[in-house]
User: Which sequence fits this backbone?
């Protein structure tokens, strides 16, 4: 029996039971056998969920890039590590071998050093899906700098908030990016953001689109010029197991985004382990995750997990619809992709198109399919299974979060029988609990509850950067000695889990977390707006769409509402990014409120879901009369 690579359901149960009975021993064995350490740890785990404090492999020393790169050089130096597929289908793919990637990472690491970057410094990376993004991430890790990747679809305001929050002094960006037919200007977004971030003294610019950009003297440098002069010899920085590796921001239901801080050793062990098991990766396979490295899925399952296992990982710059809706399948055929991992929203969008787009390509290389980011509906699951997998490739419906670092619930392909819409079973080392309204754990099967995790796992975020109180408050205060995920779930008769969705004010739109508060803050900035509340409602491609109920200040009443809608969406785009734009905006005379003045989102959600006949008792509201007018307004 191998703890590291599970191949049968029986083996899963054996390994799972062992992982729960002796968690420390379980992870210690894996850490020992599959990774390179510069010094062995003294203590496997120290934890308490009150403080909360979690430390794995204390005393251990290592560098994650030695595990991702150096150790493969002797055995697979010439094997492709990253396979870059550009936006333009007529441009050749780039096969970057392990030795070339190693060299490129070392060179960029030396560039960072030459600009004064030291261990512990935070570096903001705002790059599109080009190889330099992976190289920059690894270059930071090599010298112990903490990367903070910001998805290159975020606005300048969102970028500035993230740069300020973790006090980055350097930004790595590109001139622009290609997305389908569009060429986007990224450098000007950075320039705008930096007007609010005077502490940033260095900007390194990767040239991708070669468009005209402004360069600020003594602050902005072309990466290529610096790389040219840079040595390919860069020894690793020896890191303590609990030294920070990266910060990644995720939206909360309130306040500013949360900078989830991940540390080195536990994250490495867990992402490598879960990559191997969930994707059943074997030597020679070509693995493709379509996520952007700007999200946790890309960090863990494009860069670190695959490279730690010596895998070939595809990076795709473009979009599924360019030059047509067959692009994903053309790439699968061209590179003989074995594992394909995408989001339900992409599947739903592609399922709307003619199935010939799929059937025109040879997908026989596929062995495992994956989905992540939101619940997958049954129809999309079947479409994926039948048309892409030809009922031959098991679907791993993987549940995890930015906070968990790695996949927590997923079938193990070819071992765990799958059921549509069920993420099925916890991975080894993951101890789940469902909680009831009385804050007690619900035992037994065929139950619903709030999803918690009752024992630490190696890749959990250790804190919210700069705000440990918020970390405790958000994740550890709802239930005693439990990490609360913010999701609801049900456990069926055989113990399989189905994630039912967020139970807080986070709305998942096309797989992206949108916190209601920051969007409402943006809307409220409009001078005509008095108050707003946003809710989600079902959308057949995006999963959820966004619905804003807005009351206007008196002076705004007679404005042209269509213009106002445009202005509000423009404001959202500039404050957060296009992903948070509203699908529906309804102007109302008031918002339903409790007697303590809290907006009753439950009522607004029902109206948006077209379920206004199920509002229940509204007589306790402060202003029940507004409900009727909102319902009427919604029907227009
Ligand atoms: O609600 C869950 C949903 O996405 C949330 C985490 O979002 P984020 O931190 O952006 O990470 C997304 C990629 C891991 C979760 O709290 N979610 C993620 N995967 C699934 C899911 N909901 C249902 N099924 C999934 N497989």
Assistant:
């Amino acid at each position: 029996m191998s703890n590291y690579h599970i191949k049968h359901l029986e083996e899963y149960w054996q390994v799972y039971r062992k992982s729960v009975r002796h968690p420390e021993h379980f992870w210690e064995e894996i850490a020992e056998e599959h990774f390179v350490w510069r010094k062995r740890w003294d203590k496997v785990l120290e934890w308490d969920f009150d403080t909360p404090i979690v430390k794995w492999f204390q005393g251990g020393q290592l560098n994650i890039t030695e595990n991702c790169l150096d150790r493969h050089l002797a055995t697979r130096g010439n094997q492709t590590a990253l396979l870059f597929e550009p936006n333009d289908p007529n441009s050749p793919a780039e096969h970057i071998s392990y030795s070339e990637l190693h060299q490129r990472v070392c060179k960029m690491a030396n560039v960072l050093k030459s600009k004064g970057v030291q261990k512990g410094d935070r570096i903001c990376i705002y790059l599109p899906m080009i190889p330099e993004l992976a190289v920059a991430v690894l270059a930071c890790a090599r010298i112990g700098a903490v990367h903070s990747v910001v998805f290159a679809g975020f606005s300048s305001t969102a970028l500035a908030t993230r740069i300020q929050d973790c006090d980055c002094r350097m930004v790595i960006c590109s001139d622009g990016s290609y997305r389908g037919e569009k060429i986007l200007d990224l450098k000007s977004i950075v320039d705008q953001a930096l007007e609010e971030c005077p502490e940033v003294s260095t900007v390194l610019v990767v040239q991708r689109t070669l468009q005209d950009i402004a360069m600020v003297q003594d602050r902005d440098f072309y990466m290529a010029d610096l790389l040219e002069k840079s040595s390919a010899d860069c020894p690793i920085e020896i890191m303590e197991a609990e030294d920070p590796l990266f910060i990644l921001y995720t939206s909360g239901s309130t306040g500013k985004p949360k900078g989830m801080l991940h540390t080195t050793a536990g994250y490495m062990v867990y992402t490598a382990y879960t990559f191997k098991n969930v994707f059943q990766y074997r030597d020679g396979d070509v693995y493709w995750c379509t996520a952007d490295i700007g999200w946790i899925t890309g960090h863990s399952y494009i860069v670190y997990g695959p490279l730690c296992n010596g895998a070939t990982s595809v990076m795709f710059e473009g979009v599924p619809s360019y030059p047509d809706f067959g692009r994903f399948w053309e790439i699968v055929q061209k590179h003989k992709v074995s594992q394909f991992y995408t989001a339900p929203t992409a599947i739903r969008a592609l399922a709307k198109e003619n199935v010939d787009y799929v059937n025109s390509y040879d997908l026989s290389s596929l062995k495992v399919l994956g989905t992540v980011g939101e619940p997958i509906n049954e129809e999309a699951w079947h479409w994926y299974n039948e048309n892409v997998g030809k009922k031959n490739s098991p679907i791993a419906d993987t549940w995890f979060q930015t906070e968990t670092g790695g996949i927590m619930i997923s079938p193990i392909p070819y071992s765990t029988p799958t059921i549509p819409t069920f993420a099925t079973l916890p991975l080894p080392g993951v101890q789940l609990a469902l909680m009831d309204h009385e804050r007690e754990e619900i035992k037994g099967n065929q139950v619903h509850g709030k999803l918690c995790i009752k024992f630490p796992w190696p890749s959990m975020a250790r804190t919210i950067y700069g705000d440990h109180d918020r970390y405790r408050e958000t994740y550890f205060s709802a239930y005693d000695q439990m990490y609360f995920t913010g999701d609801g779930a049900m456990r069926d008769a055989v113990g399989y889990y189905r994630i039912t969705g967020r139970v807080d004010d986070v709305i998942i739109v096309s797989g992206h977390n949108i916190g209601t508060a920051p969007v409402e803050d943006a809307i409220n900035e409009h001078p005509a707006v008095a108050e707003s509340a946003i809710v989600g409602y079902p959308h057949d491609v995006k999963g959820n769409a966004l619905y804003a109920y807005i009351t206007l200040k008196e002076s705004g009443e007679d404005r042209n509402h269509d213009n106002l809608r445009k202005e509000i969406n423009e404001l959202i785009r500039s404050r957060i990014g296009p992903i948070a734009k509203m699908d529906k905006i309804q102007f109302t005379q008031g918002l339903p409120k409790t007697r303590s003045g809290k907006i009753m989102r439950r009522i607004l959600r029902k109206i948006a879901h077209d379920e206004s006949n199920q509002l229940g008792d509204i007589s306790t509201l402060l202003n029940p009369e507004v409900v009727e007018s909102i319902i009427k307004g919604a029907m227009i």
In short: Residues 176 and 185 are 4 Å apart (CA to CA). DSSP finds 20 helices and 30 strands in the chain.
